[in-house]
Structure formats: C-alpha cells, structure tokens
Design the sequence.
C-alpha cells in the first residue's frame, strides 16, 4: 500500500486528488494539508511514502515546505502545480530542490479541470513511491558488456548527441548540460516527457544552468553544433536530411509511437539521418521509451549510454534498454558528461 499525503490550499483540489488516488487499490491518502506548515508537520507525523505538493499556498509556500520536507523527512515529493509563468519557473526550482517529478494542474476549465490529471497523477505517485529501490536489479546473462562498456571503433566520430528522459529528467538534464563544455562540437537533441505548456519555461531554465544555447524546437530548425533543441511536449521531433543539411521536423503522429513526444522516434530518425554517427543517452525515467531508438542507433553503428540505477530517480527507461542488450555503457549521472565526451 502506497501511503500519500496531499498538500493543497484548495479544499476542492484536496478532495479531488484524494478521490483519484484512493480509487486505486494500492494507494491510500493518510493525511491532507492546507498549507506549507501543515505539509511539513504532517509529513513528519504520518511518514507517508509520497507527498503531493501544491506550490502556491498560504502561510508557507510550497518551495519553502519542500525544503523543510527534504531536511526533516526525505520523503519523495511530487509537485502538482499550474503552468503559469511564475508557477512554471517555481516547478523547476522545486525539482532542483529535490522534488522527484511534477504534474500539471489543469486550470483552463476551472476547478473541474483538475479531474483531467488522474491517470498521470496515479502513475507518477507509483513511480515516486518506488524511487531508488535498493539492490534488486541484477543484469541478465549477456549484459556484462553493457555493465563495463564497449570499445570504440577506431576513427569513429559522432555528429550528434540524442538524450531521452522522463521522471526525474529535468533535474538530471540540468546537471548534465551544465557539465558539457560550450565548445561541444555536436548538436544536442533532447526528448523529455513533459506537458507542452512547460517546455518553453524548461528551455529557459536549462539555458540558465549551462553555457550551451537551449531552445524549444520549431519545425524546420537546423541542427547546429553546441545548440540544444528540446522536443515540444505535444509533438514528435523527427530528424531529417543527410550530410551537412540536417534539420528537425515536428509531427503529432508517428508510426508505432506510444509516447508523445517519443524518444524512440527521435533516436530512430537520428540513426538514419546521421548514418549511425550519433551518441544516444537515456537518463532517469519510467517506462521503456528509448529502447527501440537505442537499438536503431546501435545497429547503425552509434554509441549508447544509460544512467545507472543508483543515481536515477526511476530506473525504468535505462533498465529496459539494458535488458534489451542495446547499451554500450552504464554510467552514473555525475560521470555522464565525461562519458559522453569520451564517446564523441
């Protein structure tokens, strides 16, 4: 049973979130909080497995409450917030402070709009409850090469870096891109599972934490060395062209795509456009998006790296790729930038 504390200053939101969560047989809401002070105190008192936290609350705001929860309880926190300008920026501040993920609180339809987030909320609460599971992953036979890395082909040189992430990804990307040098000689294509209303704010946030240029991708953008293109939250980022004339196209549909945007779609198209001269990276995230993309990159001659379990908020996407046998190297988040530079 996953025990949850719901913190929100809106009585309607508290009731709606509670009903959505308790409709699931494996989730129980053990307490609610009306403001940040209650959130901190009741987290200590009830010791939930997960806290859902609004950021705009009276007496003590959500960011201050999050810092208190991290200091006193170390409970996984899932931010549930609106997507307005200040609120969106605060979401990324919350992720930097230690929140594991966020869910957009839909406000376009008024209070009733919060009912739209049920499926995403439940999935992310389950993922947050299972973050950093200790010592249960053992590579299957044949995975030894993935665990220790693979030798580079002499003379091979990458022309692109493609990165996929989901739950826990914003904080991981912030750290990774912050460590990559401004003289990076390849373009970077990033697919982060994220609501579309947050992508522009996220690009701005990342740009403030790296010396690389970061922006949300637009249809027809050319790939430029040292520039990071971030997939829109509601469209696939497809790499097209050949040679030196390579650009991205945006599409709402793609054959076989389960996720939108899809890491698989971007990686598969990059494998073809760059003729295998690309490095694929999977960071923290739940699900299996990216496994088939890594397979395509590797089959074309590219290099593949994934974040290790110990440094992942959720070890799902990377685990799937490892178990599929399509990973060259498993690396901690702290060492990923160096591993990428070596692979390039």
Sequence:
């Amino acid at each position: 049973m996953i025990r949850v504390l719901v913190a929100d200053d809106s009585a309607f939101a508290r009731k709606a979130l509670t009903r959505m969560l308790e409709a699931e047989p494996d989730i129980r809401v053990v307490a609610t909080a009306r403001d940040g002070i209650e959130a901190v105190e009741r987290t200590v008192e009830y010791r939930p497995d997960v806290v859902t936290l609004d950021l705009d609350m009276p007496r003590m705001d959500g960011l201050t409450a999050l810092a208190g929860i991290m200091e006193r309880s170390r409970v996984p926190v899932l931010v549930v917030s609106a997507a307005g300008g200040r609120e969106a920026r605060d979401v990324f501040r919350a992720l930097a402070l230690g929140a594991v993920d966020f869910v957009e609180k839909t406000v376009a339809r008024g209070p009733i709009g919060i009912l739209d987030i049920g499926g995403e909320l439940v999935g992310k609460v389950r993922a947050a409850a299972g973050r950093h599971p200790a010592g249960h992953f053992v590579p299957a036979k044949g995975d030894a090469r993935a665990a220790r890395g693979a030798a580079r082909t002499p003379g091979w040189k990458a022309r692109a870096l493609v990165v996929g992430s989901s739950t826990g990804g914003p904080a991981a990307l912030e750290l990774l891109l912050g460590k990559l040098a401004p003289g990076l000689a390849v373009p970077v294509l990033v697919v982060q599972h994220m609501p579309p209303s947050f992508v522009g704010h996220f690009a701005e946030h990342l740009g403030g934490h790296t010396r690389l240029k970061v922006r949300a991708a637009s249809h027809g953008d050319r790939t430029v060395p040292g520039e990071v293109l971030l997939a829109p939250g509601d469209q696939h980022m497809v790499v097209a062209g050949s040679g030196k004339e390579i650009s991205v196209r945006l599409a709402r549909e793609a054959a076989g795509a389960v996720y939108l945007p899809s890491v698989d779609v971007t990686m598969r198209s990059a494998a073809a456009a760059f003729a295998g001269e690309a490095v694929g990276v999977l960071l923290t995230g739940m699900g299996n998006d990216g496994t088939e993309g890594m397979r395509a990159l590797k089959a074309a001659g590219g290099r593949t790296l994934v974040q290790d379990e110990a440094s992942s908020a959720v070890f799902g996407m990377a685990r799937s790729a490892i178990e599929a046998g399509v990973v060259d190297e498993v690396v901690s988040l702290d060492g990923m930038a160096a591993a990428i530079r070596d692979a390039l």
